[in-house]
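Notes from the 1:1 (GR / supervisor)

We went over the backlog. Supervisor wanted to see one worked example end to end before approving the batch request, so GR pasted a single chain during the call. The sequence is below; no edits were made to it. Supervisor asked that the structure be written out right there so they could see what the output format looks like.
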Amino acid sequence: MNIHPTAVIDPRAQLDSSVIVEPFAVIDGPVKIGPETRIGAHAVVCGHTTLGARNTIGSFASIGGAPQDIHYKGEPTELIVGDDNQIREYVSIHRATVKATGKTLIGNNNMIMAYCHIAHDCILADHVIMANVATLAGHVEIGSHANLGGLVAVHQYCRIGDYAYIGGMSGIGLDVPPYVIMEGTRNQMRIASINKIGLRRSGMDRETIKNLEEAFKILFRSPEILLKDALAKLEEEMRDCAEVQKMVQFFHSSKRGVVKRTLDD
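Structure output shown during the call:
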């Protein structure tokens, strides 16, 4: 174990022998840190926080702090972080409240750039990118391979679907469906198109992308069709395309409502 002599390590913490802790870092509380994880200088990891393997925590990051919720009374809620995440300088990630599962969850292979904030009870899947100063309020869910541009702000309880691409400085107040590109302020959110470039880079085949483009036209560019009828049409005519069905189910499961406006509206 490589722990700098100026670092402060709580005796309750459990660190793998391969963990590196840089100068003036603080590990406070019953923290668990997995193999080959590096804790940067002046970073703070606290509370009931579990970090998996090969994570990098940047300098001055604050990981596992108490939720910013006036109803929180010190309950032993958790932050659980998977493997191979890059969590850069000055990022803050808070543990959960008792209002949901009691766990803030971060998956694997995510890139959380400098000054981002992930609030209590959020759930990030895998391969998510959050550019600098992107901010998630409480109970937000981010799907796999989603990409949030710089200064994006997401309202409480919103969901961002798999492979969605959110343009910088956007304000998100409704659910953003999977596979789309969108941008705009909270009152002027607009969906531009299917995230074709992102899907190609991910290795998705041309036929599936073509199906998603057709589904996009039916859902977002067919004003003569009611939403419920458009969803029923896709359920019937594209039942064999798992990605289209995921988009359909995203609409069905939404509690806040899904962004429907496009750049043409």
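Supervisor's comment: The chain is about 15% helix and 25% strand.
Batch request approved.
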